[in-house]
Design goal:
The protein is of the alpha+beta class and about 475 residues long. Helix content is about 40%, strand content about 20%. The protein starts with 15 loop residues before the first helix and ends in a 5-residue tail after the last helix.
Protein backbone atom coordinates (compact mmCIF):
# COMPACT_ATOMS: atom_id res chain seq x y z
CA UNK A 1 0.00 0.00 0.00
CA UNK A 2 1.26 3.49 -0.82
CA UNK A 3 2.38 5.93 1.83
CA UNK A 4 -0.59 8.16 1.00
CA UNK A 5 -3.06 5.34 1.54
CA UNK A 6 -1.83 4.50 5.03
CA UNK A 7 -3.17 7.66 6.70
CA UNK A 8 -6.72 8.62 7.50
CA UNK A 9 -8.51 11.52 9.09
CA UNK A 10 -7.47 11.65 12.73
CA UNK A 11 -6.04 14.00 15.34
CA UNK A 12 -4.93 16.71 14.98
CA UNK A 13 -6.91 17.51 11.83
CA UNK A 14 -10.19 16.43 13.39
CA UNK A 15 -9.81 18.88 16.24
CA UNK A 16 -11.84 22.12 15.98
CA UNK A 17 -8.79 23.97 17.34
CA UNK A 18 -7.01 23.42 14.01
CA UNK A 19 -9.49 25.50 12.01
CA UNK A 20 -9.61 28.11 14.77
CA UNK A 21 -5.83 28.49 14.57
CA UNK A 22 -5.92 28.69 10.75
CA UNK A 23 -8.80 31.18 10.70
CA UNK A 24 -6.84 34.47 10.87
CA UNK A 25 -4.30 33.23 8.32
CA UNK A 26 -6.96 32.07 5.88
CA UNK A 27 -8.87 35.35 6.14
CA UNK A 28 -5.79 37.12 4.79
CA UNK A 29 -4.63 34.49 2.29
CA UNK A 30 -7.81 33.12 0.73
CA UNK A 31 -9.21 36.38 -0.78
CA UNK A 32 -5.88 36.94 -2.55
CA UNK A 33 -6.15 33.71 -4.54
CA UNK A 34 -7.22 33.98 -8.17
CA UNK A 35 -9.78 31.21 -7.74
CA UNK A 36 -11.52 32.80 -4.74
CA UNK A 37 -15.06 33.63 -5.90
CA UNK A 38 -16.11 36.03 -3.14
CA UNK A 39 -13.85 38.97 -3.91
CA UNK A 40 -15.08 42.32 -2.65
CA UNK A 41 -16.85 40.84 0.38
CA UNK A 42 -15.11 40.23 3.71
CA UNK A 43 -14.77 36.72 5.10
CA UNK A 44 -16.56 36.57 8.44
CA UNK A 45 -15.63 33.02 9.41
CA UNK A 46 -15.01 29.43 8.36
CA UNK A 47 -16.57 26.05 9.00
CA UNK A 48 -14.83 22.74 8.41
CA UNK A 49 -16.57 20.38 5.96
CA UNK A 50 -13.85 17.72 5.81
CA UNK A 51 -10.25 17.26 6.98
CA UNK A 52 -7.91 14.46 5.94
CA UNK A 53 -4.25 13.78 6.59
CA UNK A 54 -2.45 12.83 3.37
CA UNK A 55 0.87 13.00 5.20
CA UNK A 56 0.85 13.26 9.02
CA UNK A 57 1.19 16.99 9.81
CA UNK A 58 3.20 16.33 12.96
CA UNK A 59 5.78 14.36 11.00
CA UNK A 60 9.11 15.77 9.86
CA UNK A 61 10.09 17.39 7.64
CA UNK A 62 6.62 18.04 6.19
CA UNK A 63 2.93 17.20 6.47
CA UNK A 64 0.03 17.51 4.06
CA UNK A 65 -3.58 18.29 5.00
CA UNK A 66 -6.55 18.12 2.66
CA UNK A 67 -9.32 20.46 3.83
CA UNK A 68 -12.77 21.31 2.53
CA UNK A 69 -13.59 24.63 4.16
CA UNK A 70 -16.71 26.73 3.88
CA UNK A 71 -16.00 30.47 3.80
CA UNK A 72 -18.78 32.61 5.26
CA UNK A 73 -19.34 36.07 3.74
CA UNK A 74 -22.10 38.69 3.97
CA UNK A 75 -24.63 38.59 1.17
CA UNK A 76 -25.09 41.27 -1.45
CA UNK A 77 -28.68 42.47 -2.07
CA UNK A 78 -28.83 40.32 -5.22
CA UNK A 79 -27.94 37.24 -3.19
CA UNK A 80 -30.44 37.83 -0.43
CA UNK A 81 -32.56 34.78 -1.22
CA UNK A 82 -29.73 32.30 -1.70
CA UNK A 83 -30.11 29.21 0.51
CA UNK A 84 -26.31 28.61 0.67
CA UNK A 85 -24.55 31.96 0.86
CA UNK A 86 -21.14 30.45 1.68
CA UNK A 87 -18.80 28.74 -0.79
CA UNK A 88 -16.87 25.55 -0.06
CA UNK A 89 -13.21 25.52 -1.11
CA UNK A 90 -10.70 22.72 -1.52
CA UNK A 91 -7.41 23.51 0.22
CA UNK A 92 -4.17 21.53 0.19
CA UNK A 93 -2.15 22.76 3.14
CA UNK A 94 1.50 21.89 3.52
CA UNK A 95 3.01 21.90 7.02
CA UNK A 96 6.73 22.49 7.70
CA UNK A 97 8.87 23.78 10.52
CA UNK A 98 10.18 26.44 8.15
CA UNK A 99 9.86 27.11 4.44
CA UNK A 100 12.87 26.88 2.15
CA UNK A 101 13.35 30.04 0.03
CA UNK A 102 11.92 28.35 -3.09
CA UNK A 103 8.54 28.01 -1.33
CA UNK A 104 8.36 31.58 -0.03
CA UNK A 105 5.62 32.59 -2.55
CA UNK A 106 3.46 29.74 -1.21
CA UNK A 107 3.45 30.96 2.40
CA UNK A 108 0.09 31.09 4.18
CA UNK A 109 1.52 31.89 7.62
CA UNK A 110 2.96 30.73 10.93
CA UNK A 111 0.69 29.11 13.51
CA UNK A 112 1.00 30.51 17.00
CA UNK A 113 -1.53 28.23 18.68
CA UNK A 114 -3.58 25.08 18.18
CA UNK A 115 -2.39 21.52 17.49
CA UNK A 116 0.23 22.72 14.97
CA UNK A 117 1.54 25.66 17.00
CA UNK A 118 5.04 26.68 16.02
CA UNK A 119 4.79 25.27 12.47
CA UNK A 120 4.46 26.99 9.10
CA UNK A 121 1.60 26.32 6.69
CA UNK A 122 1.68 26.96 2.94
CA UNK A 123 -0.04 26.22 -0.39
CA UNK A 124 1.16 22.66 -0.90
CA UNK A 125 0.78 22.51 -4.68
CA UNK A 126 3.96 24.61 -5.03
CA UNK A 127 5.89 21.72 -3.44
CA UNK A 128 6.90 18.61 -5.40
CA UNK A 129 6.48 16.10 -2.55
CA UNK A 130 2.81 16.88 -1.79
CA UNK A 131 2.06 16.89 -5.53
CA UNK A 132 3.68 13.44 -5.74
CA UNK A 133 1.40 12.21 -2.96
CA UNK A 134 -1.69 13.09 -5.02
CA UNK A 135 -0.43 11.28 -8.11
CA UNK A 136 0.54 8.22 -6.07
CA UNK A 137 -2.93 8.12 -4.51
CA UNK A 138 -4.48 8.21 -7.99
CA UNK A 139 -2.09 5.52 -9.24
CA UNK A 140 -2.91 3.16 -6.36
CA UNK A 141 -6.68 3.91 -6.21
CA UNK A 142 -6.24 4.93 -2.58
CA UNK A 143 -9.07 5.52 -0.10
CA UNK A 144 -7.99 8.02 2.55
CA UNK A 145 -10.55 9.18 5.07
CA UNK A 146 -13.38 10.82 3.11
CA UNK A 147 -11.32 10.85 -0.09
CA UNK A 148 -11.48 8.33 -2.96
CA UNK A 149 -8.99 8.15 -5.81
CA UNK A 150 -10.26 6.28 -8.86
CA UNK A 151 -9.02 5.27 -12.33
CA UNK A 152 -10.72 4.29 -15.57
CA UNK A 153 -9.79 0.62 -15.87
CA UNK A 154 -11.47 0.40 -19.26
CA UNK A 155 -9.06 2.97 -20.69
CA UNK A 156 -6.09 0.98 -19.43
CA UNK A 157 -7.48 -2.25 -20.88
CA UNK A 158 -7.74 -0.49 -24.26
CA UNK A 159 -4.10 0.52 -24.10
CA UNK A 160 -4.63 3.87 -22.38
CA UNK A 161 -1.90 5.67 -20.50
CA UNK A 162 -0.61 4.04 -17.31
CA UNK A 163 0.31 6.28 -14.40
CA UNK A 164 4.04 5.86 -13.81
CA UNK A 165 5.86 7.08 -10.76
CA UNK A 166 8.84 9.43 -10.99
CA UNK A 167 7.02 12.07 -13.06
CA UNK A 168 8.28 15.52 -12.01
CA UNK A 169 5.36 17.81 -11.02
CA UNK A 170 5.07 21.53 -11.71
CA UNK A 171 2.27 23.91 -10.79
CA UNK A 172 0.60 25.75 -13.67
CA UNK A 173 0.67 29.42 -12.67
CA UNK A 174 -1.82 30.78 -15.21
CA UNK A 175 -4.95 29.11 -13.80
CA UNK A 176 -7.91 31.30 -12.89
CA UNK A 177 -10.86 29.47 -11.32
CA UNK A 178 -9.01 26.25 -10.43
CA UNK A 179 -5.46 24.91 -10.03
CA UNK A 180 -3.52 22.49 -12.22
CA UNK A 181 -0.35 20.43 -11.80
CA UNK A 182 1.52 18.98 -14.79
CA UNK A 183 3.39 15.71 -14.23
CA UNK A 184 6.40 15.26 -16.50
CA UNK A 185 4.56 16.56 -19.60
CA UNK A 186 2.56 13.32 -19.42
CA UNK A 187 -0.49 14.17 -17.28
CA UNK A 188 -2.25 17.27 -16.01
CA UNK A 189 -4.23 17.17 -12.77
CA UNK A 190 -6.96 19.80 -12.54
CA UNK A 191 -8.01 20.43 -8.93
CA UNK A 192 -11.37 22.12 -8.56
CA UNK A 193 -11.27 24.85 -5.96
CA UNK A 194 -14.93 25.76 -5.50
CA UNK A 195 -16.61 22.51 -4.49
CA UNK A 196 -20.30 21.61 -4.74
CA UNK A 197 -22.03 18.26 -4.29
CA UNK A 198 -23.12 16.33 -7.34
CA UNK A 199 -21.72 15.09 -10.63
CA UNK A 200 -19.35 17.69 -12.05
CA UNK A 201 -19.57 17.97 -15.85
CA UNK A 202 -15.79 18.40 -16.04
CA UNK A 203 -15.53 14.69 -15.18
CA UNK A 204 -18.90 13.49 -16.44
CA UNK A 205 -18.75 14.73 -20.03
CA UNK A 206 -15.10 13.95 -20.94
CA UNK A 207 -15.56 10.46 -19.46
CA UNK A 208 -18.69 9.84 -21.54
CA UNK A 209 -17.08 11.32 -24.67
CA UNK A 210 -13.97 9.17 -24.31
CA UNK A 211 -16.13 6.05 -24.01
CA UNK A 212 -18.03 7.21 -27.08
CA UNK A 213 -14.74 7.37 -28.98
CA UNK A 214 -14.67 11.16 -29.42
CA UNK A 215 -11.00 12.09 -29.81
CA UNK A 216 -11.67 15.84 -29.50
CA UNK A 217 -11.63 15.74 -25.69
CA UNK A 218 -8.73 14.41 -23.57
CA UNK A 219 -9.96 11.28 -21.79
CA UNK A 220 -9.89 11.29 -17.96
CA UNK A 221 -7.26 8.88 -16.68
CA UNK A 222 -8.13 9.14 -12.98
CA UNK A 223 -10.13 11.34 -10.65
CA UNK A 224 -10.45 12.39 -7.04
CA UNK A 225 -13.75 12.34 -5.12
CA UNK A 226 -15.04 12.99 -1.61
CA UNK A 227 -17.98 11.13 -0.03
CA UNK A 228 -19.63 13.36 2.56
CA UNK A 229 -23.06 12.98 4.12
CA UNK A 230 -24.29 10.71 1.35
CA UNK A 231 -23.18 13.18 -1.34
CA UNK A 232 -20.35 12.80 -3.85
CA UNK A 233 -18.07 15.76 -4.54
CA UNK A 234 -15.73 15.88 -7.55
CA UNK A 235 -12.37 17.26 -6.42
CA UNK A 236 -10.01 16.74 -9.34
CA UNK A 237 -9.48 15.10 -12.74
CA UNK A 238 -6.23 13.70 -14.20
CA UNK A 239 -5.99 13.82 -18.00
CA UNK A 240 -3.26 13.36 -20.61
CA UNK A 241 -1.13 16.46 -21.08
CA UNK A 242 -1.05 17.59 -24.72
CA UNK A 243 2.65 18.32 -25.06
CA UNK A 244 3.45 21.40 -27.11
CA UNK A 245 -0.20 22.43 -27.40
CA UNK A 246 -1.22 26.07 -27.65
CA UNK A 247 -4.56 27.33 -26.40
CA UNK A 248 -6.76 29.02 -28.96
CA UNK A 249 -6.53 32.46 -27.35
CA UNK A 250 -2.73 32.52 -27.41
CA UNK A 251 -2.65 31.18 -30.96
CA UNK A 252 -5.17 33.74 -32.21
CA UNK A 253 -3.21 36.62 -30.67
CA UNK A 254 0.03 35.28 -32.13
CA UNK A 255 -1.47 35.12 -35.62
CA UNK A 256 -2.96 38.58 -35.23
CA UNK A 257 0.43 39.98 -34.23
CA UNK A 258 1.94 38.47 -37.40
CA UNK A 259 -0.89 39.78 -39.55
CA UNK A 260 -1.70 36.18 -40.48
CA UNK A 261 -5.11 34.86 -41.44
CA UNK A 262 -6.85 32.72 -38.78
CA UNK A 263 -9.73 31.57 -40.97
CA UNK A 264 -8.44 28.04 -41.57
CA UNK A 265 -7.93 27.48 -37.84
CA UNK A 266 -11.38 28.91 -37.04
CA UNK A 267 -12.91 26.55 -39.59
CA UNK A 268 -11.08 23.55 -38.06
CA UNK A 269 -12.22 24.67 -34.61
CA UNK A 270 -15.81 24.81 -35.88
CA UNK A 271 -15.47 21.22 -37.06
CA UNK A 272 -14.04 20.13 -33.70
CA UNK A 273 -16.88 21.83 -31.81
CA UNK A 274 -19.45 20.17 -34.06
CA UNK A 275 -17.88 16.75 -33.50
CA UNK A 276 -18.14 17.22 -29.73
CA UNK A 277 -21.75 18.40 -29.97
CA UNK A 278 -22.62 15.46 -32.23
CA UNK A 279 -21.04 12.97 -29.84
CA UNK A 280 -22.83 14.49 -26.85
CA UNK A 281 -26.19 14.32 -28.64
CA UNK A 282 -25.49 10.68 -29.51
CA UNK A 283 -24.48 9.80 -25.96
CA UNK A 284 -26.96 11.71 -23.79
CA UNK A 285 -30.68 12.47 -24.16
CA UNK A 286 -31.84 15.47 -26.17
CA UNK A 287 -35.03 17.42 -25.54
CA UNK A 288 -37.30 19.63 -27.64
CA UNK A 289 -37.83 23.22 -26.52
CA UNK A 290 -41.22 24.53 -27.52
CA UNK A 291 -43.07 27.62 -26.40
CA UNK A 292 -43.47 26.51 -22.78
CA UNK A 293 -39.79 25.64 -22.44
CA UNK A 294 -38.49 28.72 -24.28
CA UNK A 295 -40.46 31.20 -22.18
CA UNK A 296 -38.36 30.85 -19.00
CA UNK A 297 -35.19 30.83 -21.11
CA UNK A 298 -36.14 34.11 -22.82
CA UNK A 299 -37.41 35.60 -19.56
CA UNK A 300 -34.01 34.90 -18.02
CA UNK A 301 -32.25 36.73 -20.86
CA UNK A 302 -34.57 39.71 -20.45
CA UNK A 303 -34.10 39.82 -16.70
CA UNK A 304 -30.32 39.75 -17.08
CA UNK A 305 -30.56 42.67 -19.50
CA UNK A 306 -32.73 44.64 -17.07
CA UNK A 307 -30.29 44.01 -14.22
CA UNK A 308 -27.33 44.93 -16.41
CA UNK A 309 -28.83 48.27 -17.45
CA UNK A 310 -29.22 49.13 -13.77
CA UNK A 311 -25.62 48.16 -13.03
CA UNK A 312 -23.96 49.75 -16.10
CA UNK A 313 -25.46 53.08 -17.23
CA UNK A 314 -23.51 52.95 -20.52
CA UNK A 315 -25.73 50.04 -21.58
CA UNK A 316 -29.03 51.90 -21.18
CA UNK A 317 -29.22 53.62 -24.61
CA UNK A 318 -28.96 50.24 -26.30
CA UNK A 319 -31.41 48.33 -24.11
CA UNK A 320 -34.48 48.76 -26.36
CA UNK A 321 -32.58 47.44 -29.39
CA UNK A 322 -31.09 44.56 -27.43
CA UNK A 323 -34.49 43.59 -26.06
CA UNK A 324 -35.75 43.05 -29.61
CA UNK A 325 -33.37 40.07 -29.89
CA UNK A 326 -35.19 38.33 -27.06
CA UNK A 327 -38.63 39.45 -28.22
CA UNK A 328 -37.95 38.02 -31.68
CA UNK A 329 -37.01 34.65 -30.17
CA UNK A 330 -40.12 34.66 -27.97
CA UNK A 331 -42.22 35.50 -31.04
CA UNK A 332 -40.88 32.55 -33.00
CA UNK A 333 -41.60 30.22 -30.09
CA UNK A 334 -45.14 31.58 -29.76
CA UNK A 335 -45.69 30.91 -33.47
CA UNK A 336 -44.81 27.23 -32.98
CA UNK A 337 -41.07 27.07 -33.66
CA UNK A 338 -39.12 24.55 -31.62
CA UNK A 339 -35.44 23.88 -30.98
CA UNK A 340 -33.40 20.86 -29.91
CA UNK A 341 -31.46 21.10 -26.67
CA UNK A 342 -28.65 18.81 -25.55
CA UNK A 343 -25.67 18.74 -23.24
CA UNK A 344 -23.05 21.25 -24.40
CA UNK A 345 -19.71 22.62 -23.23
CA UNK A 346 -21.39 25.52 -21.45
CA UNK A 347 -18.52 28.04 -21.36
CA UNK A 348 -16.88 27.78 -24.76
CA UNK A 349 -14.28 30.32 -25.88
CA UNK A 350 -10.83 30.31 -27.45
CA UNK A 351 -9.12 29.75 -24.11
CA UNK A 352 -11.00 26.46 -23.70
CA UNK A 353 -9.51 24.99 -26.87
CA UNK A 354 -6.09 23.42 -27.44
CA UNK A 355 -4.30 23.00 -30.76
CA UNK A 356 -1.73 20.21 -30.80
CA UNK A 357 1.56 20.52 -32.72
CA UNK A 358 0.00 18.24 -35.36
CA UNK A 359 -2.80 20.77 -35.89
CA UNK A 360 -5.63 18.89 -34.16
CA UNK A 361 -8.02 20.86 -31.96
CA UNK A 362 -9.30 19.63 -28.57
CA UNK A 363 -11.92 21.08 -26.23
CA UNK A 364 -11.18 21.22 -22.49
CA UNK A 365 -12.69 22.48 -19.22
CA UNK A 366 -16.28 21.23 -19.35
CA UNK A 367 -17.05 22.57 -15.88
CA UNK A 368 -19.32 25.30 -17.28
CA UNK A 369 -19.67 28.68 -15.61
CA UNK A 370 -18.68 28.02 -11.96
CA UNK A 371 -20.88 30.90 -10.77
CA UNK A 372 -24.01 29.05 -11.90
CA UNK A 373 -25.60 26.24 -9.85
CA UNK A 374 -24.42 22.76 -10.81
CA UNK A 375 -27.94 21.59 -11.69
CA UNK A 376 -28.28 24.47 -14.14
CA UNK A 377 -24.91 23.70 -15.74
CA UNK A 378 -26.04 20.12 -16.39
CA UNK A 379 -29.28 21.06 -18.18
CA UNK A 380 -29.64 20.43 -21.93
CA UNK A 381 -29.25 23.67 -23.88
CA UNK A 382 -29.27 24.67 -27.56
CA UNK A 383 -25.81 24.26 -29.15
CA UNK A 384 -26.18 27.90 -30.25
CA UNK A 385 -25.08 28.93 -26.77
CA UNK A 386 -21.63 27.40 -27.27
CA UNK A 387 -21.43 28.82 -30.79
CA UNK A 388 -22.30 32.31 -29.57
CA UNK A 389 -19.59 32.07 -26.92
CA UNK A 390 -16.98 31.27 -29.55
CA UNK A 391 -18.17 34.03 -31.87
CA UNK A 392 -17.82 36.52 -29.04
CA UNK A 393 -14.33 35.17 -28.31
CA UNK A 394 -13.17 35.95 -31.88
CA UNK A 395 -14.41 39.49 -31.33
CA UNK A 396 -12.45 39.77 -28.09
CA UNK A 397 -9.27 38.53 -29.75
CA UNK A 398 -9.63 41.04 -32.56
CA UNK A 399 -10.09 43.95 -30.16
CA UNK A 400 -7.19 42.91 -27.95
CA UNK A 401 -4.76 43.61 -30.79
CA UNK A 402 -3.81 47.15 -31.77
CA UNK A 403 -4.25 48.50 -34.28
CA UNK A 404 -7.56 46.76 -34.94
CA UNK A 405 -7.46 44.48 -37.98
CA UNK A 406 -10.65 45.23 -39.96
CA UNK A 407 -12.67 42.17 -40.86
CA UNK A 408 -10.52 39.70 -38.87
CA UNK A 409 -13.28 38.72 -36.45
CA UNK A 410 -15.92 38.55 -39.20
CA UNK A 411 -13.70 36.19 -41.22
CA UNK A 412 -13.17 33.94 -38.20
CA UNK A 413 -16.86 33.94 -37.28
CA UNK A 414 -17.88 32.94 -40.79
CA UNK A 415 -15.17 30.27 -41.03
CA UNK A 416 -16.15 28.77 -37.67
CA UNK A 417 -19.81 28.47 -38.72
CA UNK A 418 -18.76 26.97 -42.07
CA UNK A 419 -16.64 24.33 -40.32
CA UNK A 420 -19.47 23.57 -37.93
CA UNK A 421 -21.88 23.07 -40.84
CA UNK A 422 -19.45 20.71 -42.60
CA UNK A 423 -19.92 18.21 -39.75
CA UNK A 424 -23.54 18.72 -38.72
CA UNK A 425 -25.04 19.68 -42.06
CA UNK A 426 -26.63 22.71 -40.40
CA UNK A 427 -25.06 26.18 -40.52
CA UNK A 428 -25.74 28.07 -37.26
CA UNK A 429 -26.33 31.24 -39.32
CA UNK A 430 -29.51 29.70 -40.76
CA UNK A 431 -31.15 30.30 -37.36
CA UNK A 432 -30.19 33.97 -36.96
CA UNK A 433 -32.84 34.77 -34.35
CA UNK A 434 -31.62 32.11 -31.91
CA UNK A 435 -27.96 32.93 -32.53
CA UNK A 436 -28.52 36.68 -32.11
CA UNK A 437 -30.37 36.12 -28.83
CA UNK A 438 -27.54 34.03 -27.37
CA UNK A 439 -24.86 36.39 -28.62
CA UNK A 440 -26.76 39.34 -27.16
CA UNK A 441 -27.11 37.58 -23.81
CA UNK A 442 -23.37 36.87 -23.80
CA UNK A 443 -22.46 40.46 -24.70
CA UNK A 444 -24.67 41.78 -21.90
CA UNK A 445 -22.90 39.49 -19.44
CA UNK A 446 -19.54 40.74 -20.74
CA UNK A 447 -20.52 44.37 -20.25
CA UNK A 448 -21.31 43.76 -16.58
CA UNK A 449 -18.15 41.72 -16.04
CA UNK A 450 -15.85 44.30 -17.63
CA UNK A 451 -17.51 47.21 -15.84
CA UNK A 452 -16.86 45.50 -12.51
CA UNK A 453 -13.45 43.94 -13.08
CA UNK A 454 -11.71 45.44 -16.15
CA UNK A 455 -13.15 48.86 -17.03
CA UNK A 456 -10.49 49.37 -19.70
CA UNK A 457 -11.99 46.44 -21.62
CA UNK A 458 -15.57 47.77 -21.51
CA UNK A 459 -15.39 49.18 -25.08
CA UNK A 460 -15.00 45.63 -26.46
CA UNK A 461 -18.44 44.28 -25.48
CA UNK A 462 -20.00 47.73 -25.96
CA UNK A 463 -18.93 47.63 -29.62
CA UNK A 464 -20.78 44.33 -29.96
CA UNK A 465 -23.76 45.75 -28.09
CA UNK A 466 -24.02 48.60 -30.61
CA UNK A 467 -23.99 46.10 -33.48
CA UNK A 468 -26.47 43.72 -31.88
CA UNK A 469 -28.85 46.53 -30.87
CA UNK A 470 -29.03 47.67 -34.48
CA UNK A 471 -29.28 44.14 -35.91
CA UNK A 472 -32.72 43.15 -37.16
CA UNK A 473 -31.76 39.50 -36.97
CA UNK A 474 -30.48 39.06 -40.53
CA UNK A 475 -27.90 36.31 -41.11
Amino acid sequence: MSEAATHSASAPVARPELLASLDPLLREWLPRQRWFAGKGRPVTGFSLVSATELLPPTGRPLGLLHLLVRAHQPLTPAQGALPHPSDCYQLLIGVREALPPRLAPALIGHLEEGPLAGLTVYEALHDARPADVLLEALRTRAQIGDLRFERDGREESRGGQIIRDGLVPRLVTSEQSNSSVVYGDTFILKLLRRIVPGTNPDLELPLLLSREGCARVPAPVAWMLAELGGETYTLGVLQPFVRGATDGWELALRELAKGADFGAEARALGRATAEVHTALARTLPTVTLGHAQMKPLVDGMTQRLDAATQAVPALRPYAPGLRTAFEALAGLAAEGSAWTAQRIHGDLHLGQCLRSPSGEWSLIDFEGEPSKPLAERRLPQPPARDIAGMLRSFDYAAHSHHPLTPGWADTCRAAFCTGYAEVTGVDPRTDPVLLRAYETDKAVYEVVYEARHRPDWLPVPLAAVRRLAADAGAP
